[in-house]
Design goal:
Bound molecules: flavin mononucleotide
CATH superfamily: Electron Transport, Fmn-binding Protein, Chain A
Distance between the termini: 47 Å
Radius of gyration: 19 Å
Helix content: 25-40%
Strand content: 25-35%
């Protein structure tokens, strides 16, 4: 059976386009913003790391928001998850994005908080896909042991029924995590020499410099 495949084409940067740290910063920013919108972009996913009692915890999440100045980013999570508990006891987080095709890694350090503005959280919930919303509808917390293989098998009635009641539960379990970004590190791999920048966000601006890769 012949399938029609449309390749997803990514923006590529070259050596000549990186004359200043701001050039690489701008490329990373544009790609990270694109990654939020485009599910096939490698920056659609990132690794989100939190800390609890001196132990690091990491997991893959979907990149849901990134502002123009690269000072705020957003992910969505179950309120009952480990990451939410960890953030409440220690807000320090790091995020890593990697695009193999673009040979680009971006790392952020920052502090995370759970969005308390219910109207905004409602907006993000309502504009999520039905499948994403449904993931939050189950009565057991993520990570809890179950008798069946999956939560869908454990609660078949919920899996077929998108009732108002189960969607109300889903909304209560849904949470938005906002990250305030304090520092970044970007690494672009090149045969002519890897290019790496480090940035600290002070007051209103990024202080960027090239560093040894
Ligand atoms: C491709 C992929 C995307 C994921 N996206 C999310 C996400 O956006 N939000 C989320 O909470 N978990 C997401 N997960 C699940 C997490 O990796 C993790 O298993 C879950 O959040 C529980 O982690 P925790 O107990 O440390 O909070 C994703 C997993 C994969 C493999």
């Amino acid at each position: 059976m012949g399938g029609y495949f449309m390749a997803y084409s990514l923006n590529i940067i070259d050596n000549d386009q990186i004359q200043t740290p701001q050039d690489l910063f701008a490329f990373c920013r544009d790609e990270l913003i694109l990654g939020v919108k485009k599910s096939k972009h490698p920056f659609h996913l990132c690794t989100f790391c939190s800390v609890m009692e001196d132990r690091p915890f990491s997991r893959t999440v979907v990149s849901r928001g990134m502002n123009q100045s690269l000072t705020e980013c957003r992910i969505h999570s179950d309120r009952r998850s480990q990451k939410n508990h960890q953030l409440m006891s220690n807000p320090n987080v790091s995020l890593v994005y990697y695009s193999q095709q673009q040979r680009l890694q971006v790392r952020f350090e920052g502090t995370a908080c759970i969005l308390m503005d219910q109207a905004k959280a409602d907006h993000y919930f309502i504009t999520s896909s039905q499948h994403s919303q449904q993931c939050y509808a189950y009565p057991m917390s993520p990570g809890a042991a179950i008798n069946e293989r999956t939560k869908e098998e454990q609660y078949p009635e919920l899996s077929v029924n998108e009732s108002d009641a189960s969607m109300d539960e889903a909304r209560k379990n849904f949470s938005v995590i906002d990250v305030s970004i304090k520092a970044l590190d970007a690494l672009w791999l090149s045969k002519k020499g890897h290019v790496r920048i480090h940035g600290i966000h002070n007051a209103n601006d990024w202080d960027l410099k090239f560093v040894v890769a």
